[in-house]
Amino acid sequence: MIDRRVSRQFYHFQAGIGLVKAHLKLPKTMRRQVNFRWLLALMGGCALFAVGAHFLHAYQVKRTADILLRQADKAEEDGKLAEAANYLGRYRTLAPKDPAVTAKYALLLANDKLATSPRSLRRALDVLEQALRQDANRHDVRRRAIKVAMHPWIQLFDHAAAHLETLFAANVKDAELLGWRAQCHQEAEQFDEARIRYEEAIAQPKKNAEDFVRLAFMLRQHPAKVMKGATNAEELAKLADQKVDDMVAALPNVHLAWLYAARYHRDFDKAPERYMQDIAAAVALAPDDKEVLLTAANLERENQHAAVARTYLEKGIQLHPQDWRFYQNLAQLETDEKQPAAAVVALRQGLAKIPRQADLQFGLAHIHLLEGQNEEAEAFIAKLTKDNFPARELDYLRGRLLFTKEQWTQAIGLLERTYSQFQARNIEAKNWFIFGLM
Questions:
Q1: DSSP string across 339-380
Q2: pTM of the prediction?
Q3: pLDDT tens-digit profile of 184-205?
Q4: In whole angstroms, what is the distance from residue 53 CA to residue 219 CA?
Q5: C-alpha–C-alpha distance, residues 143 and 165, integer Å
Q6: How open is the CA angle 285-287-289, to the nearest 5 degrees?
Q7: Residue 356 and residue 340: Cα distance in Å, rounded?
Q8: pLDDT at position 1, please?
């Protein structure tokens, strides 16, 4: 692209030619003596200057772009991801159609340390899509786009399904992708298709524990919609139990398998000894793992062992200070113990470590509403709205706020529309939140 200054020089050059032509058309009596050599030399100088300025500008752009790339690489090596993203974003203003850099920038924006709000996730997804338009064969970028689209703050499962089908058409298929496709079917209430994909996923050589347990829960929770040869719900329940047994048999040294088994047995096996054995196996395999600590804490909290649960959560905060779930679960524990002030402290402690983390802000808004602290709640609702938090959850908070203000008609309208759906999804999803799978 020619610089504006270069364009002006060409304009002056053309204007000079026009003046010469006009001069020659005048009658001889009206013509003034013109030094044509000097005029041609001036015009030639202008042309050379314009060409030189163009190439100088191109050189400066390339030099600036190279510097920005080097700065981005250095910042990323030093763990300064936000700084690296800034350098790459500035580079893209100079070279917006560089597919390799667009892909690198997109993957950086989608990094868990940067994509900490609905707004940042949507921004990451937009740039991931741009990268795929520039190079549709970047399967790593498409895989990341699928993961972002399925995030609970985004929930674009149709979007994710389309990308998954594109990968399948390119003969890219593994247990993770098949499991994701099953989840998309499940979100669309296509339970038979979801079951087929889950079973295909757990048949892969490299298996994911998540697929076994998602299939088992689906068989338990939606028996009428996934019969497929079974005669009754009891038969499906036995099949679900078998899937969980198959999981721990196939993945005996994977602590997540034992965690998922613990949650399943906690919900569907009346004998507490079974899931406690599962937890013990997980703790033995990975005593400092964040998922182990979270699951152990949640099960202890549900069993009214608050002190033990608090020990797990405090250890988790010490070892994994950037994981917002520990602060959220500690706040839930304090709420159970009728200590709302301590719950607020826990959530604010998390926000001090992870500023603008949306789930922690949602938790604070909810507690402030429970305590009748409307101004504080409104401040967090405004922040969540700005960050594009999911509408259903925001409507729930707004409905609660209107209720505390005794604006009954508006409150009932919002809560009737959102609460049942919010509660139903939360009941089904509660098993996944503690594992960070949603």
A1: -HHHHHHHHHHHHHHSTT-HHHHHHHHHHHHHTT-HHHHHHH
A2: 0.73
A3: 999 999 999 999 999 999 999 9
A4: 70
A5: 11
A6: 95
A7: 21
A8: 43
